[in-house]
Amino acid sequence: MRSFQGVMMSAKGKLAVVVLSMAIIFYAVVGGFLSHEATAKDNPWAQLHIFDDVLRHIVRDYVDEPDLEKVRIGALHGLAEGLDPYSAYLLPEQVRQHNAGKNGLGETGLVLSKMGGFAFVVSVLKGSPAEAAGFQPGDFIEYIGKTPSRDISLYNAYSLLNGPIGTEVELSIFRGNKPHKLKVKRAVLTQPAIESRAQEPGIGYVKVTSLAAGKANEIKDQLTQLKNRGAQKFILDLRATAGGELEEAVAVANLFIKSGVIAKTVGREGKELSVLQARPERFAFDNELVVLINYNTAGPAEAIASAVVENKRGEVVGVRTFGAGSQQQLFNLKDGSGLLLTTVKYASASGKPFMDGGVTPTVEVKPGDAAELVPPDAVQEEDEDDPQKQQKQVAPSQPAEDIQLKRAVEILNTGKAPARRAA
Fold first, then answer.
1. Count H helices, E strands: the chain?
2. H helix runs in 101-140, sequence order
3. pTM of the entire structure?
4. Is residue 387 part of a domain?
5. What is the DSSP string of 55-80?
């Protein structure tokens, strides 16, 4: 038989439920007038009734006296992280750290997203400590130090990775169905130089290693040097290019596109926030062009690929891109905590957000049987709790031959490519 205390709510618990329930009921009533035509699924005020029920059960029926502040913080974390991998609820100390920026902190060079709840390596910055430590795109991170990546937001994952310059952090990962432990030393990151070479007589190759500020000018310089050495056609390699600045990506696309829309940013319900146009004075190359992409092409680099596709400026060879690109805004809350919320998505010239499926190539070429990747959304639902099962489907291995690059050269040499598919 349960004790009297087990049956009855504590005075503190009753007060908490009354206060929270009054707020919920008020907003639900107001919301009912404002959103009476919305379905229960779409109506946030209807959802608050469920929170009210859950809170009552926690206070009344949980086996121990609940720590309601801990419950509240956990619920707010869940609310934010249920939206997308990039939104997060920040505690007051995290808000202060966020506002202070990365001054004095070392980084690893890992570009992350979330898949099946786990932190997932989208790309590794060339020349970074993470590359030196042996990390590869496709690695699933199970633990950062002793913290499971499933238990934290992507924001918190980066917070654990960053730290005093020269210190190390150990990560437990899965790759190729095998567990590994890797230590990486935090450092001040330097952006890698753009790489270029004469791929074949008359064909210049440029590897975009970064889209940080200033890289568009560096890419232009490399293209100009190749052209002066006889290159008449170009291959722009965006594979494993993730992160960087959208404006820099637009400037790179503008080197090849003289006029028209290159990219957009969109807000709620697809509302256009900005239209990024090509500027004729920045146009520099009318040469034939092939762009290489893969599943690790993410963020601003997707703007370049989509601009080439939608402006019919050249062929885009490879497989569908990762599908990323957004901006977050910090909303300060009354208790000093904050809500980091995605408010802007990067989109193609036609307005399609990259987060809604990435960029589809005009010529699909998988990297080879030994290294065949699948899109992130192809991970089976039943495998979401097992990084080893997910790893089987997405972990890359190095092919013996770069058949995507080979196909790009073939297209430029023959001028033949399959009929275009819709982007």
1. 12, 19
2. 129-133
3. 0.83
4. no
5. HHHHHHH-SS---HHHHHHHHHHHHH
Q: Check: CB of residue 364 under 8 Å from CB of residue 404.
A: no
The one-letter code for the residue type at 315 is E
Burial of 293 (0-12, 13-18, 19+ CB in 10 A): buried
Structurally, how many domains does the chain consist of?
A: 3
- In contact, 413 and 407? CB cutoff 8 Å: no
Q: Compute the half-sphere exposure of residue 176: CA atoms within 13 Å on the CB side of its CA.
A: 8
pLDDT digits (tens, 9 = 90+) for 378-387: 444 445 455 5
Q: What is the pLDDT of residue 389?
A: 52
From CA 234, how far away is CA 308, in angstroms rounded? Answer: 13
Res 39: pLDDT: 54
Burial profile 193-231: b = 16 or more Cβ within 10 angstroms, e = fewer: ebebeebeeebbbbbbbbbbeebbebbbebbeebeeeeb
Compute the C-alpha angle 173/178/184, nearest 5°. Answer: 30
Q: Are residues 261 and 161 in the same domain?
A: no
Of 318, 285, 278, nearest to 302 (Cα)?
318
Q: Which domain does 38 fall in, by range?
A: 4-66
**Arithmetic mean of pLDDT over the chain:** 86
50 is a domain residue = yes
Give the end of a domain, one of 13, 48, 66: 66
Task: Judge whether 332 and 362 are in contact, CB under 8 Å.
Answer: no
* 294 DSSP 8-state letter: -
Q: Read off the tokens for 212.
A: 């940080």
Q: Let me know how long the chain is.
A: 423
CB 5 within 8 Å of CB 19: no
Q: What is the CATH number of the domain that holds 151?
A: 2.30.42.10
Q: What is the pLDDT of residues 213-260, one digit of tens each?
A: 999 999 999 999 999 999 999 999 999 999 999 999 999 999 999 999
From the CA atom positions of the chain, what is the Rg in Å? Answer: 25
Report how far residue 270's alpha carbon sits from residue 351's, in angstroms, rounded to the nearest whole number.
Answer: 8
Q: How far apart are CA 384 and CA 367, in angstroms?
A: 25
pLDDT at position 52 is 87
Q: What is the CA angle 245-100-81, rounded to 5?
A: 65
204 shares a domain with 168: no
Backbone angles phi, psi at 80, to 5 degrees: -70, -45
